[in-house]
Amino acid sequence: MADYDASTLLVDRNLALELVRVTEAAALAASRWIGRGDKNAADGAAVDAMRKAFDTVAISGTVVIGEGEMDEAPMLYIGEKIGLGGPEVDIAVDPLEGTSITAKGGPNAIATVALAERGGFLHAPDIYMDKVAVGPGLPEGIVHLDARPEENLRELARAKKCDIGDLLVCTLDRDRHQDMIAACRKAGARIMLLGDGDVAGVIAVSQPSTGVDIYMGSGGAPEGVLAAAALRCIGGQMQGRLMFENEEQVSRAREMGVTDPKRIYGIYEMARGNVMFAATGVTGGPMLRGVQRSAGGAMTHSIVMRSKSGTVRYVEAHHNFARKPAAFVA
Ligand code: VTB
Ligand code: MG
Ligand code: MG
């Protein structure tokens, strides 16, 4: 059992549940736009609602993974101070992870937030990150970003005492993954291709109910940090490497504190110290159900967890719009 200080514990615990309110608000707002073909409207609604919800949370937060730079994003931009006042924390947000999926009514869109002590998150620029992740309970270093897909699959199958054909790989359905997908298929593995949403894709490795054994491939770097925060809480291994496309991106990242552009980050280098993670389903997926709207209300399904205790909570909330403050009715 870990030592604890009762007052910090109370703050942490309450904060974790406050975070769910924040992701619920974003998911409820985005849910109005499911399948309506307008991804920007869905995203805007989620950002707006999440920003408002943060005003009621007792933190002195600084956004470090957000919606962009101050001059290009009106809200939740990098460096923005949020919260009612309280412990100094860093915040990573993706108010709607899966804008296109939401616009099409596809699966796996989530509203998500992570929180760390000051300086806890890698300040990931908005570029791609190459990622590999596996679930908890496996020998440390069992998979590696520099290993070929078939090597990672072989090692994973050996550790899980199964055939490669029993393994399910999850990745984004992108042309840039063609060679990796071909290598996995040649090795005999099965693949789940996602339209979008690699935060949920990476987290899936830690959840037996999803059937996913390994995540491979490149996606957004900010999404990589959010996924790392989640795995810090729930267990599992992940490596990430920023994928720079030009010198300008490299120097921009240097300004944000990235000293070695080729570095492979482990999970603790992306999300250090005590972290918390919350997500609410917008559209349904294997981990979270989507928002269900009905007359005068809605049901949301969320996950919230803390690295310190390792407790994972699923929260099913029934919202009664007639009794919610007007500002939070979406
Ligand atoms: C992924 C996915 C996101 O961006 O990170 C992806 O999880 C990466 O970019 O939902 P590409 O779409 O260019 O591959 C999103 O699709 C959007 O943030
Ligand atoms: Mg976003
Ligand atoms: Mg995103």
What brief labels describe this structure?
330 residues; alpha+beta; Fructose-1,6-Bisphosphatase, Chain A, domain 1; D-Maltodextrin-Binding Protein, domain 2; 8-stranded mixed beta sheet; 6-stranded mixed beta sheet; 9 helices; 31% helix; binds 7-O-phosphono-alpha-L-galacto-hept-2-ulopyranose; binds magnesium ion
Which term fits the overall shape? Answer: globular
What would the average pLDDT be, to the nearest integer? Answer: 94
CATH superfamily of the largest domain: Fructose-1,6-Bisphosphatase, subunit A, domain 1
List the total number of helices.
Answer: 9
The first-level CATH class of the largest domain is given as Alpha Beta
Total strands: the figure is 14
Radius of gyration computed on alpha carbons: 19 Å
Concise account of the structure shown:
Belongs to the FBPase class 2 family. InterPro entries: FBPase_class-2/SBPase. Helix content is 31%, strand content 27%.
Describe this structure in words.
- This protein is an alpha+beta fold and 330 residues long.
- It has two domains: 6-119 and 275-328, 2-Layer Sandwich (Fructose-1,6-Bisphosphatase, Chain A, domain 1), CATH 3.30.540; 128-270, 3-Layer(aba) Sandwich (D-Maltodextrin-Binding Protein, domain 2).
- It has nine helices and 14 strands.
- Strands 1, 2, 3, 4, 11, 12, 13 and 14 form an eight-stranded mixed β-sheet that branches. The chain has a six-stranded mixed β-sheet with strand order 7-6-8-5-9-10, sandwiched between helices.
- Strand 12 (292-294) and strand 13 form a beta hairpin.
- Helix 4 crosses helix 5 (178-187).
- The structure holds 7-O-phosphono-alpha-L-galacto-hept-2-ulopyranose and magnesium ion (2 copies).
- One magnesium ion (MG) binds at residues 43, 94, 96.
- One magnesium ion binds at residues 94, 97, 220, 223.
